[in-house]
Amino acid sequence: MAASKKIVARAEKLRELIAYHNDKYFGDDDPEISDAEFDEFVRELRTIEAEHPELVPAESLLDVPGAPTTTTFAPVVHRLPMTSLDNAMDHDELRAWGDRVTKGLGGEPTRFVCELKIDGLALSLRYENGRLVQAATRGDGKVGEDVTANVRTIGAIPQHLDSTPAVLEVRGEVYMSKAAFERLREAKMQENESRVAEGRKPQPVPANPRNAGAGSLRQKDAAVTATRELSVWTYQLGEVNGVPEFVAHHETLDYLRALGFPVNPEVRVVDSLVGVIEFCAHWQEHRNDLPYIIDGVVVKVDDLAQRERLGYTSKAPRWAIAVKFPPEERTTLLRDIKVSIGRTGRATPFAVLEPVVVAGSTVSMSTLHNREQVQRKDVRPGDTVVVRKAGDVIPEVVGPVLALRPANSKPWKFPTKCPCALKSTLVQVGDEADTRCVEPECPHQRDQKIIHFTARGGMDIEGFGEKTVYKLSDAGVIEDVGDIYSLSAEALLGQGFGEGQTANLLKSIDASRGRPLEKLLVALGIKHLGPAAAESLARRFGSLDLVAQASVEELSAIDGVGDVIAESVASWFADVRHRAVIGKLRKGGVRFDHVTLVDAPQTLAGRTIVVTGTLVAFGREQAERAIKDRGGKSAGSVSAKTYALVVGDEPGSAKVKKATELNVPRIDEAAFVRLLDTGELP
Ligand code: IVH
């Protein structure tokens, strides 16, 4: 039957959508729609193309699922293509696949290996004579990207093997655990806060662990990948030469495990589809118990000879299928839209929901980000809304179910008053997108400042979370962060904290007294001062008192501390209210001079630096410490191995002479600071 105009138009539209979202996913690592929605487009187009072959273009989009559009890595041609998998969206489709397998094998019985379908990024690892020689992404399946340098920073991936087959290609999935993702996201958001405050563009915050993992793996600078907590599960052999003869897939998994590769423990060999369905049902129910995200189950024929007979279609093996789990979406009542006030006074709208369990946890609130998002989604109190978890982690209101909208519903209006007791007017300053409460005494801002202080990234006071802050602040027991350090057991017991909880709180408060200076600086919540600039300050001044005394000129002279931050820091310390807080912290025994930058980027790994003469911003010990913190070695004399000689005031002439003879670069203090930051010489 010839395709109607409507179908032709629909196919075109679907192609457009698929190309667009492919680009978002693979080009930008920033998808706008869920995998399930994307798969739905693909399936619809596939169905149309199957029914109307005349509509299939010479090169169908569907032949090359997920072709990358931009690449900054060297291409790697896969010697054996990294094919994708066909999907089964329900048990019927799974059974249909099972029937095709049985038919393909002439009715022979088949055993299946069930594995979890890890929601990450496919990776090929090539070992030659036991050495990791290349790591590549899947790309379009034929050509991927060379990410060897980045992959070498992933601790779980062996660099050398005890056994040394001539060629061993191992395939698997790189992923970021849910916990690691939360940590990265928190750090990124904090970083963005300072960027925005400085008038710089915020950087995209990864929306889910898969994007975070993909983004981390595809960093230009392997040192950045090294800071990301990536993990891997290996699940398949690629090209091999000189490995034992295997009969079944599960043996190859045992082999990988024995070689030291991470192989997921949740693997089951079953001898019928009934077992497969059981495995799927179990993991669909328990997927949220895992510390990483799965989006289904991969079922593979175990017998390798049978696999060979089944072979491949043009896109995927016939011997395997991905059983996809539906994304968990729930509908619930949007009880209200409220705004929360942040520590800088910014008003953020959020949804108050009738509690509903989505992807393993109860959701009762969800951020709506800003005024514009509420308008765009047009969600209104009283609406029934669709809720899901972006990447199974962050709750999100997708939109209203219009059919269930109450007749009298009206669009939501941004409130004009702060929700705090002072009810000050919310203002939109200049052409800023944000709406703010500018009342300095606003109790909501005050509480958020305290929460920021006690949170991870700041003083990290375990057990001192939001609830504790609200309780103590509402009761007037603490008015600012300085009061935390004079809290007594009596005061806490008096507020209804139990004996054990009181003891624990006091213990964690005490532990926080020794936090490093850079954490203390971040915890104070000085506008524009993010973790990176705080580190620069801590490194250069070594004590809070010295930071407090520094002039704007001195502050802004520091690399990584621009004029905006310098002004902000200086005026923060000039404020008498803040001086009073500092006084309380001092009295409460908080250390002001604890500098440990052991987690500095390893810009000098394996390099030897010699310093001669006096530097302005570094004492001798500080300079040595700065070098060591970055993985370098600080030596007393110049040799051919010296990477650079840092020449300060009144340098030792023997060292300078030796460096000249040996052609060792001589650099001044400014270049030294850059070297510490970037590892690069002028
Ligand atoms: S096997 C030819 N096993 O899912 C077989 N893939 O949708 C190749 N994936 O590209 C893949 N977990 O990135 C296999 N246990 C698993 C997997 C898995 C996740 C990914 C893989 C593949 C995609 C297909």
Strand order of the largest sheet: 2-11-10-3-9
Please give the number of β-strands.
Answer: 22
Give the C-alpha Rg.
29 Å
| CATH topology grouping of the largest domain | D-amino Acid Aminotransferase, Chain A, domain 1
Q: What is the 3D shape?
A: globular
Number of helices: 24
* Helix vs. strand class: alpha+beta
Sequence stretches where pLDDT stays below 50 over 5 or more residues: 61-71
Task: State the CATH class of the largest domain.
Answer: Alpha Beta
Summarize the biggest pleated sheet.
Answer: 5 strands, mixed
What is the helix fraction of residues, given as a range?
25-40%
Kindly report the average pLDDT value. 89
The N- and C-terminal alpha carbons lie at a distance of 70 Å
Number of domains: 5
- Portion in strands: 15-25%
Question: If you had to describe this structure to a student in words, what would you say it looks like?
Answer:
This protein is of the alpha+beta class. It has 5 domains: 5-70, Helix hairpin bin (Helix Hairpins); 83-324, DNA ligase/mRNA capping enzyme (D-amino Acid Aminotransferase, Chain A, domain 1); 329-437, OB fold (Dihydrolipoamide Acetyltransferase, E2P) (Beta Barrel), CATH 2.40.50.140; 443-587, Orthogonal Bundle (DNA polymerase, domain 1); 608-678, Rossmann fold (3-Layer(aba) Sandwich). It has 24 helices and 22 strands. Strands 2-11-10-3-9 form a 5-stranded mixed beta sheet. Strands 14-13-12-15-16 form a 5-stranded antiparallel beta sheet. It is globular. Residues 83-85, 115, 117-118, 122, 138, 173, 235-236, 298, 317, 320, 322 line the site of 2-(butylsulfanyl)adenosine.
